[in-house]
Amino acid sequence: MKVKTKLYLGFGFILIILLLLASYMLFTLNQQHKFMEEIVQENYERVKLVNSLKGDTLTTGREIRELLLLDNQEDTIEKISQIHTLRENTTTTIESLLLVPSINAQTRETLISLRSHNQAYSDFIESIIDEVSNGSKDSAIQLLMNDTTNIRQVIVTEIEKFTSYEEELMNQSLQESEQAYQVTFTALIIIVIVCVALVLGVSISVVKSISTSINKVRQVMTNVTNIKDGNFPRVEVNAKDEIGEIGLAYNEMANSLETSFQHEQELKLSLQEENWIKTKHTELAIEFQGIQDLEEFGQLFLCKVSPLVQASYSAFYVTNGSGAMNRIAAYAGNGEDIPHVKFDIGEGLVGQCAKDKQTLSFETLPSNYIVTKSGLGQANPTTLLLLPIEFEGDIYGVLEIAKFEPFTSIENRLLQQVCETSGSSIDRILDHMRIEELLSESQTLTEELQTQSEELQQQQEELRLINEQLHEQYKKSDDKTKELQRIKEDLEEKNRGIKLSSKYKSEFLANMSHELRTPLNSMLILSQMLAQNTEGNLSEKQIEHAHTIYSSGTDLLDLINDILDLSKIESGKFEVYPEEVLLTDIEAFVKRQFLPVSRHKGVYFSIDVHSDAPTILFTDDQRLKQILKNLLSNAFKFTNEGGVTLRISQGLGSDSRSKIKFTVIDTGIGIAKDKLESIFEAFYQSDGTTSRKYGGTGLGLSICRDLATRLGGFIEVESIEGQGSSFTLHLPDFEGLPGLTSSDIEVAASEEIVGDEKEVEEESVEVEAQQEEVESKHLLENKVVLVVDDDMRNVFALTTALESQKMDVLFAENGKEAIHMLEENDAIDIVLMDIMMPEMNGFDAMREIRKKEQFEHLPIIALTAKAMKTDKEKCINAGASDYISKPVNIEQLVSLIKVWLYNEGERH
Ligand code: ADP
Q1: CB of 141 closer than 8 Å to CB of 68
Q2: How far apart are the CA of 696 and the centre of ligand 1, in A?
Q3: How confident is the model over 663-714, as pLDDT tens digits?
Q4: Which residues pair with 666 in a beta bridge?
Q5: Buried b (16+ CB within 10 A) or exposed e, 67-95
Q6: Is the CB of 685 within 6 Å of ligand 1?
Q7: CB atoms within 10 A of CB 304
Q8: In the chain, fewer beta carbons within 10 Å around the N or the C end?
Q9: CA of 678 to the centre of ligand 1 (A)
Q10: Which domain holds residue 346?
Q11: pTM metric for this prediction
Q12: 823 and 857 share a domain?
């Protein structure tokens, strides 16, 4: 039974007993009370009623007497009424008494008798009242006096008898009540004693049963505090009450305590292991801390780690920075036992471990794998472990370790942890070693520097001494310097003089060539005209002389041109005007120039243009032609048999200076090997004797080489003496031209120079020319030309030439005169204007002429002396329609005049 139920039952029982007891007591008390009330109420009522009856009876007697004494009618009537009321009260009282239920028979008998007596008395009183009412007061008094029965007294006596009987009854009741009280009290005492006994019994039994169970549990629980082995006692559970449940709960708690005790033990063990690993790890780390040498580190590592894990054999490998690993230390082994001292990454298990960066473990090694020896014996380790040593993802080495038994998990973990942290140690040692190395280098450097510094100090000291000496010398030399300064100034003065004189020289050369050309001009024009023998009055010999004069003049002009070119090149004034040049143009030019020569000399001339040659070049057309003309002239000059070939082909390609090459090959006399270089020197001729067979100045090749260089190319020569020579001109594409870009392109005006007449024109060309000449003569007939020139020889030559074209020629000596003549003579068709003249030069004159409206479109052809580009530009700017350089080529002049008189003139 549960404790709760037990307690409910015990206390319930006690409560019921108490309730029964209380009920009983209440019932008994109620009985007593009722009983007492009955006694008191009924008896008291009866006695009270009887006493009032007694009083009323006695009062009636007194009132009757007073009535009889009254003589007033009104008072009498009132008195009678009072008496009647009293009599009615007595009757009512007796009737009430008879109605009381508990009256016994004796009482009832007494009351009935009392009623009859009272009735008799009432009748008597009524008879008296009747007499009074009838006015016979005396008879009434008589009646009263005659009353022998004395009925009133009988009634009173009976009432007293009744009263005493009632008192006796009351006493009797009181005694009964006293007895009942005594019985009740005794019963109550007995009941209380019984109840107390019962309650005690129940309480003791309940308390005992509960405390026994609790004690059992307490006993078991008290023992728990002393348990050390984790085996907790269990409570024996018999009852199914709360204590039993406590027992069960305790047993469950003991179960879980046992489990947690086991866990705690395991945890403790693992903490101990962890602690051991940590301690050993820390000890090792401290040991490794101060080590600065890799091999020392490896040796210490193995010596400390191997005994900790009871390894019988171990080796330590470290990467050497070039993808391989070297064994730097071994434990309990020697070179013979561990033959391998170097592994590549991926080679063998050591290399594989480094490559995979993963631990490799082998549990059952074959018996011949490794042998561990001691003085007393030898055996084979059975377990092999290879662990990678890493730091920040890079492999630094491998630990190889062997043991007789398998490695325990704690040993394994220690090895893993030690290897994990060793990477940083190795990294640190490597850093340290590098720093050491650098430090020693820097120390060496410092020492060197120190030595140098000492040397420098020494030198400085020496220098100081020298300085002092120098200072002294300086003073001396200062004087000399001043002297030198004077000399320098003198020299500078002289230098300026030299520069000036060099300038003068160039100017002189230019002016000289001009001065030479002017007379040559008239000589050439006239000799040419003479040779033509237009009037037919010259003998054969005279014509030949004229030819000779003409050809000598031309040679002279060539020489002058060469000298001018050379001086320009030397003074750096030589200018290059690149333009687009068609190869076909070049081809036509050389054909025109040299076909007649080849015919004349009776040698062949072939032009061989390769298909790979570019069709358009970008170069200075005139200079290119000049070079080719020179090379071909030489070739023809030195070739008497066979012939000359011009081969045009693609350049070398490997050299940017060679986009195209022009090779002039001849079958002439050739050049000796030792003279191949010198032929390019100015004024050099391989046959320099006075009796030389071939003419020439020795300037041609020198100019050609310089020109080729200025055009961005070069000239090569190959020759076999007696067999022939080949000169090759290499030219670049236009980007290769030094100092020039396409934006600088200015097309230079062609400068044809008189001096190509020594060659004999091709017959057909000649015929054409003659026809043209006939036409042109006709064209220029009667046209008026004004020649403005101060040089009479020139005027004469030009006049003669132009008059032969049937033109009317006027002349003026200077600009002023020309303007004057133009104003005078409006028939002038065209003006030939020289530039250098006294009074008013050609530029000013042209400007003046153009100012006048009527001469706005007058063709003016300027005759420039120097073939400078600026001169030509200046001419056009001053108002010239066109220009032609001196010495004047008559044909060219004539065709120019035609152009301006007809074509251009028509346009205006
Ligand atoms: P020159 O006006 O005398 O020809 P160059 O400078 O043109 O002057 O030539 C110099 C010398 O080189 C010539 O005198 C000649 O001896 C030699 N030379 C030039 N070209 C040839 C050639 N094609 N065959 C043989 N010798 C040559």
Answers
A1: yes
A2: 8
A3: 999 999 999 988 888 888 877 776 655 445 666 677 888 889 988 988 889 9
A4: 644
A5: bbebeeeeebeebbeebeebbebbeebbe
A6: yes
A7: 16
A8: C
A9: 10
A10: 290-436
A11: 0.43
A12: yes
